[in-house]
Request: fold
Amino acid sequence: MAERPLGQLTLSEKFVDAERMARELMDHLDRGFLPRIRELQKLVEPADGQPLNDEVEDLTVRIHAARVLESDLFTEELYARLERYCRSINADVSRILTGG
Reply:
């Protein structure tokens, strides 16, 4: 189903969609983005006084870094959509409050 343009949505629909996107963003950060960063961090940083694992191959690090970057791109896109919704909600509420 194609999304309707933001200008065609009611204020109520915008609130519902923004709430869904906020939950999706939080879920993605908790279950996707942050765990991928921790995985990469474990590969490249020594743990509490332990020597760095020299056996980790460059390809492994590149694969993990690519996953982080891919996840970051999704995070930025979702955040940008949520921000557009919040700006639109703010504009709608301002119009209601000023009678415009």
